[in-house]
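Researcher: We're teaching a course module on how sequence relates to structure. For the next exercise, students receive a sequence and then see the predicted structure as tokens, so they can try to spot secondary structure elements on their own. Here is the exercise chain.
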Amino acid sequence: MANNKHTGRDIIGKLAIPVILVLSLLTARLMVEHRSAIILSAPVELRRCGLSVSMPSGNGWESSGEWIYGDDRFIITSSLSIDPISRSYVQCQYLLAGDSETATQQLDEHASELEGQIVETGQLRTNQVMVEWARIQRTVPGTFEGLPGEAQAKSRFDFQNLSDVVLGICKLPAGRQLEIEVFSQEENNVSWEVFERIVKTVRFSDDGLLQAGAGLISEARKIGLTDILSQSPSSGLPGEAQAKSGRLSSLLLILNPRGLPIGFTFDVIMTQGENLPAVKAANYYYRRDLIPYEQIGRFRGDDGFEQFTWNVETSSRAGREGIEMTGNNGLLRIRFSAGRRSGAENEYALAKAAIPDIVLEPVMKNFRDSPLQEIIVDVIRSDGTVTPVYIEKINPAVKGQSYIWALRLEVLDGRDYWQQVYYDGDGPPAKIIFSQEGTYTFQRATPEQIARAFPEQADLVLNQYRLLEHND
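Model: And here is the predicted structure for the students to work with:
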């Protein structure tokens, strides 16, 4: 009798151990599934782009929570990493200039870049957008080139074994493009569920400002800088004589928030009629410091500023940097010729609203004369990035002074930088109020005034067009 009871207890004990293990695993799995349940954030708006999207957030998902600007696009991400079998990554990209190829062609190219095969395709439609998608099985899981270089360098997420990918492409007006990418492990099969739910949250409204900006830039290209400059008298130079030769000069003294002079900047542009290059321009920026900040830009291109080369050299306490930019057939090629990124190269597609910053100011006269009140253009900046800029006409009165016309420019890269530009005629700006971690004033000055304030740069200031002599 005693032996039978002992035997029964042994059997129960042996059965209990695997049951407890199974229950423990099931409990753990349920906890993981609960933690990884997909909860979407509130809509995250991309300012002045008419676009918003919700991303996975909470329950193990970590989201950037905002659109982050990088070179020629905006990116928002979210990642899940609970345990080795519960890992996923999501990114949405808003490209300023999408590929001219069809969405189907782009999906094929992405699959090749990801070293995978397309196993399923389709379309998802909402009330506002249509997304073409493909499901891709990656044959060589690991790191990948889908992220822009800077974003991938900043990402600490491990893409190892994320073999199930759903990629969607949405073509938007004026050449913009939205891309949605979801990476997960094949075992957990969450890629499609996450992708579908994100697509259903996409909201897009088109205010037409980008198309208006593209139209303005296209019209300016047809007119040409030669004709535009012929109606723009130069500042600090004999206006009529310079206008006839197709020249424009703008010289501004820089005052810090306390009203003290800390530097100056000037732009010079010259058109050459039938000679090549049709347009030559230069920009110089100087800020006095223990180690002065100095930037020189030299630009040469056609009259419609579609084909150009633009070399920028910067010297500061951080060292020396050089950037070589080439615009041709809607593409911008960038090469870093000096500094920490020396040898690095990038290539961006340009939208129809794109314009180099160095020739933006004379084109704004066309905006003044148009019935448009506000536009968005893509400004190619001296640091090699392409940034959307919102421009609107504003009241020209400021602190008791009355100018003839004025503009407000808001740089849409997430840093809340803006500037208000005031004009007292057809020529260059008379005054610029610039907000960048403090409010700075750029006010028109004569070469003699600048030379007295900054004698170390007197020769250059008194001979501004000399910069163009080294621009052949």
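Model: If you want an answer key for the exercise: The chain has eleven helices and 28 strands. Confidence is low (pLDDT under 50) at residues 22-36, 148-154, 234-245.
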